[in-house]
Amino acid sequence: MKTFDKIIKGRKNIIIILTFLFQILLCSKTVLAADVDVIDNVKITNEKGVVQGGYRPGDRIKIDVDWSIKSETKAGDTFSLKIPKELRGFNGTIQLKDKEGRNFGTGVGKGDIITFTFSDIVEKLENISGFFYIQSEIKYIERQGEIEVPLVFEVNGKAIKNSIIVDTGSTNSGGSPSKITEMFQKWGRINENDDNIIDWVLRVNYKGEQLYNITITDMISKGHEFVDGSLELYKGYTNHRTGNIDNQTKVPLKYPVNFSSSPSGFKLKLYNESETYTLYYQTKIVDKSISDFRNKATLEAYNKKPIIKEIMVKDFSSGGGASGDLKKYKGKLKLIKQDKTTGELLEGAVFELINDENKVVTTLTTNRKGEAITNEVLGGIYTLKEIKAPKGYKIELESEEITLNFKENKEIKKIVTNKKVTPWTPIEPIKGSIKITKVDKDNLDKVLEGAEFTLKGISEYNKNIKLIGTTDKNGLLEFKDIPYGKYTLKEIKAPEGYRIYEGEQEIIIKSQGKVVEVKVENRKSKTSSGSGSRNPDPEKPNSEKPDTKEPPVDKGDELPPQELDVIKDKLKDKLVDKDKKPSVKVNEVEKKDSSVNILLGKKEVKPKKSVDVLPKTGENGPIFNYVLGLLLIVGGLYLRKR
């Protein structure tokens, strides 16, 4: 039991020690963030930034503050400004940015206190200073005539005193009913506690006349909406001696009052009245991109012309800025250029170092060790720009912002990497060849020399192609390296003693390295002129009508091998009896069926049915049979008479 108590007691001591150490750590962290004294000046002007001799309650003013860092400051350090009770507070945020958009700190306003917290950029720069401003408003001050109002701003507990002259209004309560002529008036202002709410006031019949069938219409412009349930209606009597409204009482929004509303406004109807009515209501800002918020109210009564009052309320603006440099210290920048993958040191990379005024301070080129170093330069924020990559490499990051803080180190190293360029391999264009064989039509083994052809067409890249060639002694003509495309082949001169082939053949090139073979047949001329004919008249006997053929096509590799019935035997010029079926050999096998189909290109062609034809020499045709039958009939009649 004693042992157990000792263990428990020991654990308690450990917990106490750990708790104590944790509290020390928390305290040490708290010490790291400190309030710094940076505010130099606070200035009061009107809302346009102009110094003004006097103001009135409700007037807008502008508070301008200049600040600068005078001692070592770290990220998280703060300073605060407390706004005097005589002025409207501030609810919102203020960014302290420089012209490059770098944020030195952020201020957050909560009522009468604005607290700024610095970012880590204050640890990198020197000579840091800036400004901020807010728009405010002079609160209501009891009537005392024209007085000097002291304004005391507190900065981290220290007071910065200022003052303005305010005309609070005359203390003389005299007056007469004839001086109050107001029938309808309207006011608006941003809510003191919530910058997203606008407070509005409508005053009706301040003059105190008798009005009949009163209608008040309020129309709200874009950017804000009527807050449902916010309208309160009061009535009382105008004191023409003091100007006050006496005996004010709240009026329920029910009969005899008629009230209706929507986000875009409301309508209020009253009956016969001689009292003064005051309406208090709110709208909510729904679009912060708009700075001016308008509201138009109309008063209509049976015995009065309509009166319109349109009021604009401006949002309270704020802003700030900062700047700094590192020119207090000098040092050198050393660049090391490496292959991104292997780490190999690279020679020949060229860089520019550009300062904050966009001027090139120095140009650097890496040596065989992949290094480049500057002379002494001032500290600051620079742009490092790579303008040339090493041979065989490409620039990855053309430029980047770098901070040179030589306060601790007089030489700053920076590694810059590059990727190797993958060599570009050009894609070879598709090219093929067309091989033409010229033969005698009646003797296909006889090749013909001297036939001239033209090849025309448009290639893949819309280039017009026109080639001319002549068959050699082997009857061959080959057009080589013809680009992908569709072409037309035409014979323009026949071989000597032959008719020209008039037809045009369409040829398609679509596979790399393939040869499209074309065989062109010619018949001999009946009257040989001793030389080949060019562009003959198709009606003349030395011209030859073209055979109807499908264009030769380079089929490429897109179709798989197919087993096709190919007619190898050539049909001879012989007559076929109408009662007999033609016999055709296909792949050396005799086909007796007359419906043998022939595949030409990609089209299937069926042969025509057999027709009556004349017999060849040595064969008995139908006329012979007719004559023989007639002779037999005549002979029979002769024998019968005898």
UniProtKB/TrEMBL annotation:
<dbReference type="InterPro" id="IPR041171">
    <property type="entry name" value="SDR_Ig"/>
</dbReference>
<keyword id="KW-1133">Transmembrane helix</keyword>
<dbReference type="Pfam" id="PF05737">
    <property type="entry name" value="Collagen_bind"/>
</dbReference>
<keyword id="KW-0472">Membrane</keyword>
<dbReference type="GO" id="GO:0005518">
    <property type="term" value="F:collagen binding"/>
</dbReference>
<feature type="region of interest" description="Disordered">
    <location>
        <begin position="520"/>
        <end position="563"/>
    </location>
</feature>
<dbReference type="InterPro" id="IPR041033">
    <property type="entry name" value="SpaA_PFL_dom_1"/>
</dbReference>
<dbReference type="Pfam" id="PF17961">
    <property type="entry name" value="Big_8"/>
</dbReference>
<comment type="similarity">
    <text>Belongs to the serine-aspartate repeat-containing protein (SDr) family.</text>
</comment>
<keyword id="KW-0812">Transmembrane</keyword>
<keyword id="KW-0572">Peptidoglycan-anchor</keyword>
<dbReference type="GO" id="GO:0007155">
    <property type="term" value="P:cell adhesion"/>
</dbReference>
<protein>
    <submittedName>
        <fullName>Putative S-layer protein (Peptidoglycan anchored)</fullName>
    </submittedName>
</protein>
<keyword id="KW-0964">Secreted</keyword>
<dbReference type="Pfam" id="PF00746">
    <property type="entry name" value="Gram_pos_anchor"/>
</dbReference>
<dbReference type="InterPro" id="IPR008966">
    <property type="entry name" value="Adhesion_dom_sf"/>
</dbReference>
<dbReference type="InterPro" id="IPR011252">
    <property type="entry name" value="Fibrogen-bd_dom1"/>
</dbReference>
<dbReference type="InterPro" id="IPR019931">
    <property type="entry name" value="LPXTG_anchor"/>
</dbReference>
<dbReference type="InterPro" id="IPR013783">
    <property type="entry name" value="Ig-like_fold"/>
</dbReference>
<keyword id="KW-0134">Cell wall</keyword>
<dbReference type="InterPro" id="IPR008456">
    <property type="entry name" value="Collagen-bd_dom"/>
</dbReference>
<feature type="compositionally biased region" description="Basic and acidic residues">
    <location>
        <begin position="536"/>
        <end position="558"/>
    </location>
</feature>
<keyword id="KW-0732">Signal</keyword>
<dbReference type="Pfam" id="PF17802">
    <property type="entry name" value="SpaA"/>
</dbReference>
<feature type="domain" description="Gram-positive cocci surface proteins LPxTG">
    <location>
        <begin position="614"/>
        <end position="642"/>
    </location>
</feature>
<feature type="transmembrane region" description="Helical">
    <location>
        <begin position="623"/>
        <end position="639"/>
    </location>
</feature>
<feature type="signal peptide">
    <location>
        <begin position="1"/>
        <end position="33"/>
    </location>
</feature>
